[in-house]
Write a structure and sequence with these properties.
The structure is a single chain. By secondary structure, this protein is mainly alpha-helical. It has one domain. The chain is 53% helix and 9% strand. The protein has five helices and three strands; from the N terminus they run αααααβββ.
Length: 199
């Protein structure tokens, strides 16, 4: 009887050891599998292009906030800095693309530069806002044509920016509303998103 018990005990220990080896200690076994790692997003554009656009966007966002506060002195300061940033966008980097992106992106960038000049030259706040609206539309076109993929950008609309049923648009880094137009800071919301990250 004692002998049978010892044999059973040895068999149980062997089985337990085998199961432990299969589920825990077997080479290459790592236990329960966790979530798959998120792949790093690689931009299709050069670092030089992305960095120059990011710098320009940061100045644009500051300008939009100055418009939201109707601060004409800050509008002048930020527009001057933005104009320099627009001139510094490394648009030539897009020549490396074979899809003709450079030619398509050049026109909205030049129009945005022109509208920055209009913001500076027009003394009236309403005229500045009209030029800012056009500047925003041209930058949106630039980001769509170039398929800018460093950041997600929100395209916002204030339906009463220039009066009844006359919308004004602007770019935003967040979904929160801070309208740069006469409709007031709470006017409008997200109309669309520009998001080419990982595409």
């Amino acid at each position: 009887m004692k002998k049978v018990f010892l044999i059973l005990l040895v068999l149980i220990l062997i089985a337990a050891g085998y199961l432990l080896w299969v589920f825990k200690l077997r080479p290459g076994s790592r236990g329960p599998k966790g979530p798959d790692p998120v792949p790093l997003t690689v931009s299709k554009h050069s670092e030089a292009f992305n960095s120059s656009v990011q710098a320009m966007l940061n100045e644009y966002y500051s300008l939009a906030e100055a418009f939201a506060k109707a601060d004409t002195a800050a509008i002048g300061e930020y527009t001057t800095v933005l104009k320099t940033a627009l001139d510094s966008v490394r648009i030539d980097e897009l020549k490396k693309d074979t899809a003709g992106i450079y030619e398509s992106a050049l026109d909205p960038l030049n129009m945005a530069r022109s509208e920055a000049g209009n913001i500076l030259s027009n003394p009236a706040l309403d005229a500045k806002r009209t030029a800012f609206n056009s500047l925003s539309e041209n930058l949106r076109l630039l980001f769509i044509v170039s398929r800018y993929d460093r950041d997600k950008i929100y395209w916002q609309e204030c339906p009463t920016a220039f009066g009844e049923d006359q919308s004004g648009f602007w770019l935003s880094r967040t979904e929160s509303v801070s309208s740069p137009y006469a409709g007031g800071p709470d006017c409008g919301g997200v109309k669309d998103t520009i998001n080419f990250i990982g595409k």
